[in-house]
Give the backbone structure.
Amino acid sequence: MSTQDRLIESTQELLWERGYVGTSPRAIQQRAGAGQGSMYHHFDGKPDLAAAALARSAEQLRALAEERLAAPGTAYERIAGYLEREREVLRGCRIGRMAQDPEVVADPRLRAPVEETFAWLRGRIAEVVAEGVAAGDLAPGGDPADTAAAIVAVVQGGYVLARAAGDPEPFHQAVRGALALLRAA
């Protein structure tokens, strides 16, 4: 792995663990096994490196979601696959946690991958919901965009509930509840 990739990967992990403010250039360099010169050779500074790390985390999250949402099966099965996929529940969402970081939210460049990822996810799930309604897999009713927003909120809220409890069960309970509502629809 190149030094640049090690720096980005280390920053991804530290942002997930500590947030933006809690992630120092020194901690990034130590985790990556790279010197200060290497870091500043590849990036203009912490904001530039954080933007690259957030962009990569966003890309990875979209790929994981798309793997489930594009899988064979009914719309319900694909949404269930997305909701029930293996996750590090107690660590939270790499992208969702950044929406709670005041420094990330205040910086349009750092906030952009967060905002774009959630917009993409809501849109992609809305497409699957609309396909399910058209195929008769999901009952017609509300706006697919509203349903998609609720599904994304279940995941993000589930992470918060699980972290607050120190137990993944509230996340799984939220997922089961969302799937029951989808099935009932």
The mean pLDDT is 94. The first helix runs from residue 3 to 18. The two ends are 47 Å apart (CA to CA).
